[in-house]
Design goal:
The chain is mainly α. Helix content is 68%, strand content 1%.
Length: 405
């Protein structure tokens, strides 16, 4: 056990020796190990979704002064299993006129698009992803989920689903621009696109270097997954359920699971890029501890995402697009240019002087941004408030006094 805690790769070597002892060829053994690793990497997050569903329902309920699940099992812990049983036994309705191949492929791709992000994630020292161009892979794999949402709306033969799909193009593609610009900042600071190298470079967490970049990354990530207040892809009050209006049963459950898993995944990615990833006390001696540190940091960011969902109302689609193109994208571009130019000057000053220089630059950018926003707000036309007009009270009508016939 101690050997496994110090070097988890001993388990892989033990399995390799076992397979070779069974008479399997080295090539087939390597293939089986890759398949087993992929199954573990996919099964772990999918099982974790069960807890996330329960936690988010309880947390949002507490934020809104409700109880949440509390009947099925202790503290409602068995409620997700009851939901899965209901969805498994629910009638699977396929509307007339759908494109069957795309209609069935969309929910599968929605989950696969999230799971494709995990091979690039460094879970610990020597554990998990170690892709040379990990950030580039992350950006490319992230588009699969967008493609799945578009396919779901397009293939459903429903005008509300199609509106949700069109909003996908407008919203998700728009917010990918500031996301790419922001991801270039930790790449510049670490001098590498390998996410393991980005984690190792954080002797001081990058959130100390570039706090505004970390905030923008979290905001655009929430917009990318369509969470409140950016859930215009669904918008039940406007377009029923948006892109998944025509889905029921387990196909709907796959969209549901993909959304929850994606929300936790952006917490993990925020921890990797800005919170030191798996680094922590003893993580280099016992790499398994690194998995725990990364999970805790990711869960902390995930709690912030849940917090935002419980407290913010949905915004309008025009405000959402303006926020991306007119505010986040220019600000992200300015932060990227400032980080690139400043780091050339301070790269040899040492860890903390370099971090403080970047932090001061972000303070200056924030102050200038606030002044620009304040000046822009002053130029907006003020709403005209008219005095309320007095309401004339109806006069009582005289009652007839005659006796009649």
């Amino acid at each position: 056990m101690g050997a496994f805690l110090r070097d988890p790769s001993v388990l892989v070597e033990a399995l390799r020796t076992l397979f070779l002892g069974w008479g399997l060829s080295p090539g087939l053994t390597t293939l089986l190990l890759y398949v087993l690793g992929g199954l573990v990497l996919a099964t772990g997050p999918m099982l974790w979704v069960i807890f996330l569903i329960w936690f988010e329902r309880k947390a949002v309920a507490r934020f809104q002064d409700r109880l949440g699940p509390n009947r099925v099992g202790k503290f409602g812990l068995l409620q997700p299993f009851a939901d899965v049983l209901k969805l498994l036994t629910k009638e699977d309705i396929i509307p007339a006129g759908v494109d069957p191949i795309l209609y069935w492929a969309a929910p599968i791709l929605s989950v696969a698009g999230v799971l494709l992000l995990w091979p690039a994630v460094p879970l610990g020292l020597g554990i998990g992803g170690n892709i040379n161009v990990g950030v580039l892979y992350l950006i490319a794999a992230g588009t699969v989920g967008t493609f799945a949402i578009f396919l779901a709306g397009w293939s459903s033969n429903n005008k509300y689903a199609l509106l949700g799909a069109m909003r996908t193009v407008a919203q998700l593609v728009s917010y990918e621009v500031p996301m790419v610009l922001i991801l270039l900042i930790p790449v510049l600071l670490a001098r590498s696109m390998n996410m393991q190298d980005i984690v190792r470079a954080q002797d001081v967490w990058f959130i100390v270097y570039v706090p505004l970049a970390a905030l923008i990354f979290l905001i655009v990530s929430i917009a990318e997954i369509g969470r409140t207040p950016f859930d215009l892809l669904e918008a039940e009050s406007e377009i029923i359920a948006g892109f998944h209006t025509e889905y029921s049963g387990m196909k709907f459950a796959m969209f549901f699971a993909g959304e929850f898993l994606h929300a936790f995944t952006i917490g993990i990615l925020t921890a990797v890029f800005f919170l030191g990833g798996w680094r922590g006390p003893g993580a280099e001696t016992y790499p398994v501890l690194g998995i725990l540190y990364l999970w805790l940091k990711g869960f902390l960011v995930y709690f912030v995402v849940v917090w935002m969902r419980a407290t913010h109302p949905r915004i309008r689609i025009d405000h959402l697009l303006n926020f991306s193109w007119k505010f986040l994208t220019p600000l992200a571009l300015v932060l990227l240019v400032v980080a690139a130019l400043l780091d050339k000057v301070v790269v040899d000053l040492g860890t903390w002087p370099r971090a403080l220089a970047h932090l001061v630059s972000h303070g200056v950018v924030l102050a200038v941004t606030l002044q620009i926003v304040r000046a822009w707000a002053r130029r907006l036309p003020r709403p005209v408030v008219s005095e309320p007009r007095p309401v004339a009270r109806p006069q009582p009508q005289p009652q007839p006094t005659g006796t009649g016939d």
